[in-house]
Amino acid sequence: MHLLNTLVARAIPLIPRALIQKISRRYIAGDTLAEALARVQQLNAQGFCVTLDVLGETVSTLQQAKATADDYIEVLDAIQDHGLQANISIKPSALGLLLDAQQCEQLAQGILDRADLHQNSICMDMEDVSCTQKEIELFARLKARKGNIGLALQAYLQRTYLDIEPLVREASPLRICKGIYVEDLSHLVPDAWSNRRAINEHFLKHVGRCFDTGSFVGIATHDAALIENIVELVRRDGIDRTKFEFQMLLGVCEPLRDKLLGMGFNVRIYVPFGKDWYGYSTRRLKENPGIAGHIAKALIGF
């Protein structure tokens, strides 16, 4: 089955967009904010916190970037109005990072100010390596002005060992994830692309640095073995459960997320919504170990 999953994952670019969209419904809350809010209410009622993501990545005009920023401000207002347990995750490329870094910073600052007004927070997603350094520098400037911002780091990048140190010294809130973008092997820890479990030891070290320094950390993984190791570490070292949370994607490994919640851990669900679904969906289908089964069901109309 592992071989079949691998072959199907590599064939994702050849799969019709309509089929990708059908398969991806389980991972996306809908096209509209109203649909996303309804899903957040359901998850909150079950005991989960949420982070909302307006789908969309690199933009081609500054007008598109401004529209994305306006969308996020609308989301923050809606979270406040509905009394939801949710924050937001932003991608700087969707705010024009690669077009005009100064304009991107202004837009991000506006979002951060609105979050601060509502006593909310944002997390800056980490994107591909063309953005990594720019995003770390942007994060540092934003956090110097407002403290209600966190940053995602990718355990499969070698540079994360260096990037994490100044961040934990400043007690920056972090999200540690494995990383999913296709990168040149020179950027990656050994065997990261051929064997996702090769990333686990690096992931554990980065989470451990957060624990050691008291930096809040979002542990973003669906790897059951890795989660088991982290739970053992938490119990062994008596880590305060208010200093971390597990984070999982909407529609992925639901029995595992329910188990973690039942064990008394804080769990946050990453809930994307919007019409610009293709890039997000293809990356998640490549990452999901059950991809072959989902595609087979879609092909036969289940």
From TrEMBL:
Residues involved in substrate binding: 91, 283-284
GO terms, molecular function: nucleotide binding; proline dehydrogenase activity
Residues in Proline dehydrogenase domain copies: 36-293
Record's cofactor remark: Binds 1 FAD per subunit.
EC annotation from Swiss-Prot or TrEMBL: 1.5.5.2
The keyword Flavoprotein appears for this protein: yes
Gene Ontology terms: biological process: L-proline catabolic process to L-glutamate
Cofactor: FAD
UniProt keyword annotations, A-Z: FAD, Flavoprotein, Nucleotide-binding, Oxidoreductase, Proline metabolism
Pathway the protein takes part in: Amino-acid degradation; L-proline degradation into L-glutamate; L-glutamate from L-proline: step 1/2
InterPro entries hit by this protein: FAD-linked_oxidoreductase-like, PRODH_bac_arc, Proline_DH_dom, Proline_oxidase
Binding-site positions, FAD: 126, 154, 221-222
Reactions catalysed, as given in the entry: L-proline + a quinone = (S)-1-pyrroline-5-carboxylate + a quinol + H(+)
PANTHER family assigned: PROLINE DEHYDROGENASE 1, MITOCHONDRIAL, PROLINE OXIDASE
Protein name (Swiss-Prot/TrEMBL): proline dehydrogenase
UniProt source species: Xanthomonas hyacinthi
